[in-house]
Amino acid sequence: MTAGATRGPGERVVAPFGRRLCEVTRNIPSGGYRIFSALDPAGPEPAAGQFYMLAADSGWGGDEGRPYLARAFSVADAERESSGVRLDFLVQAVGPGTSRLAALEPGERLWIHGPLGRPFAPPSDVADGAAGAILVGGGIGVAPLALWRRRLLGAGIPARVLLGFRDRPNSGGLDLFDCSEIRLASEDGHTGHRGYVTDLLAVLLEGDDAGSGAVYACGPPAMLEAVRVLCADRGVACELALEAPMACGFGACFGCAIPHRDGGYMRLCVDGPVVRGDEIETALVPGSGH
């Protein structure tokens, strides 16, 4: 499948078994975050919304054993090059694992496992008759929406982009969006609308054509829950990229199990991380890192 193509619900890229060693090719600042790139010589191109399990080749574990487990990261951009697939990740240094990844330098090596999980589905598969998309990102959760916007654009599907941040130190990733048509919100008022990104979404959903598109969101649990409720109240279909603690990434450890609306549980690493808003009772997932 080409880089510009979209996938139906439930379709996943089949990743090579086991971990692969990649070379880090760049690491640049992006506001309060970092964008680092790695060249995957053997893996397939990921779908937007999928994730990788990442661990640095050196300085991982250390004398105190931290970080020990690989970290799950949504891919923010991907492009095939002559020697493999370039993968871009957006990271904020908040703990031993993310701090080590944020400090990666070109030439260092990175272990990756992926692409994993259920990606975003095209608007027409999310809702009958949907022809466009509204992308809603919060904080570090803007990452997968950057790749999704590129894939939608490549498929000729219009998309509006709404991004929100807590404050200036906890913002970034705008470099990943190669467009000027972005509406911004910040809780401290340093850019765009002073308030929540869901304020901007509520205005868009008041329009008569709100039902002609699908909403896609990734960000803190409270933001995702607000998106889910807004869409449910207005009869608009949505997909949410959720986060939960993951130790393996392929369904073995059950660390990322969350309740399904109809009973039982789903494992976000294989049944998600992208889920439909009507599949869950709440997006306030216990243990998420936001």
Concise description?
The protein is an alpha/beta fold. It has helices at 96-102, 123-126, 143-154, 197-204, 221-234, 268-271; strands at 20-30, 33-40, 51-56, 71-74, 77-81, 84-91, 109-116, 132-138, 159-165, 182-186, 193-194, 213-218, 238-241, 257-259, 265-267, 274-276. The radius of gyration is 18 Å and the shape is globular.
Write structural notes for this entry.
With 290 residues, the protein is of the alpha/beta class. The protein is 17% helix and 31% strand. It contains six helices and 16 strands. The chain has helices at 96-102, 123-126, 143-154, 197-204, 221-234, 268-271; strands spanning 20-30, 33-40, 51-56, 71-74, 77-81, 84-91, 109-116, 132-138, 159-165, 182-186, 193-194, 213-218, 238-241, 257-259, 265-267, 274-276. The longest helix has 14 residues, at 221-234. The chain is globular, with a radius of gyration of 18 Å. The two termini are 33 Å apart.
Name the helicity range. 10-25%
Overall, the morphology is globular
Mean pLDDT, rounded to whole units? 90
Ends: how far apart? 33 Å
Provide the succession of SSEs. Answer: EEEEEEHEHEHEEEHEHEEEHE
Radius of gyration: 18 Å
Strand elements, count: 16
Largest sheet: 7 strands, antiparallel
The strand line-up of the biggest sheet is: 4-3-7-1-2-6-5
Q: Structural class, please?
A: alpha/beta
Q: Give the count of helical stretches.
A: 6
Strand content: 25-35%
Chain oligomer state: single chain
Low-confidence stretches: 1-10
